[in-house]
Amino acid sequence: MCGTCGCGSLEVLIGGKRPPRLQSRGPVSFRTPKPHSHADDVEHHHAQSFEQSTDNASQLSALQALDSVQSRVIRVERDLFAKNDAIAANNRGFFAAHNMLVLNLVSSPGSGKTTLLVRTLNALKAKQGMAVIEGDQQTDNDAERIRTTGVPAIQINTGKGCHLDASMVGYAVEQLALIEGTLLFIENVGNLVCPAAFDLGEAAKVVILSVTEGEDKPLKYPDMFRAARLMLLNKCDLLPYLNFNVAEAIANAQRVNPEIEIIQLSAQSGDGMDAWLAWIENAQRTSVLA
Amino acid sequence: MHEMSLAESVLQIIEESARVQNFKHVRLVVLEIGKLAAIEPDAMRFCFDAVSRGTLAEDAQLQIIETPGAGICLACSAEFEMQEQYGLCAVCGSPRLKITAGNHMRVKDLAVE
Fold this sequence. Notes:
In chain A, 32% of the residues lie in helices and 17% in strands. Chain A contains nine helices and nine strands. Chain B has a domain of 78 residues: hypothetical protein PF0899 fold, CATH 3.30.2320. Chain B has two helices and six strands.
């Protein structure tokens, strides 16, 4: 298992079934791996190598030192994220072709993502076709909560995996009967680390930070706050009871991501929801124009 | 971060190379990990060791080359080395920086037989 976060990738279930494409080893099964070029214009300095000295000459000699008889050296030069990125680009093309706005909701566990989503769906369902992809390691609970609103939802159980990837989303999208112009929410696995690195083909990542967490979360998990276009500061109805400094949290988020937009709200009381709904509407307009 | 998935991706790349290049055993894997890629080399070793067991890369030596981070200031276009994913431009002090290098990870070379 992953030494950092316990991440593994066996036993992915989507809508309770094992998806055929994911049955090979690994979380990512790849439909159309594209050739990938690397802008390799930076001088590598190799002083921080962990084992041998590693300028090109000594690297080659390291290889030769392994063996001189049968070993040969193969230049591979393949990016680890290239495959996921290629599938994400496919997903993005599909979403654009069907005028779909897709938002990837990311946060720690317990920030109120599902409550926010239920309130959002109830507010918009009369005028907008929507669907939800739910990511959790285990259980169908969140998809069940979503379905009570009448909006279709599919649950991805990642097993021991700590994030959704583009192939899981591609498969889940095939299972949902989506109509033109659907607003699709992806509720990622509650985790502020790993989902930051995996593009799913979404228009934007929306990070939810609740005021029951620390103001310094953006500094502790900068990858995620850098990757997000919008931060929703949730549970603001609890501010009178907490020692949470809103200005400091906002300053920290802007420090790691000067472009980030921020909305304060409470999914419980409904305060601030109008700004969030207006943001979605604006994103739909601009993504359709784009 | 997500080193297990990445270790599995490394193995997939190796297995695909083996089919194309026709080799049966890997003795050395050279990985390039950017300083800003948020990947822990030690966790990567641990995970690669776990996923490669029983495969053509079992017992392969893993050599990790850490490449430096670099960025450009979106305000004044200054270019500089970056130690962290965010910070202030050394020239004009703007926080609007774009990472231009060091946020990738790739399989660079294999020594095979």
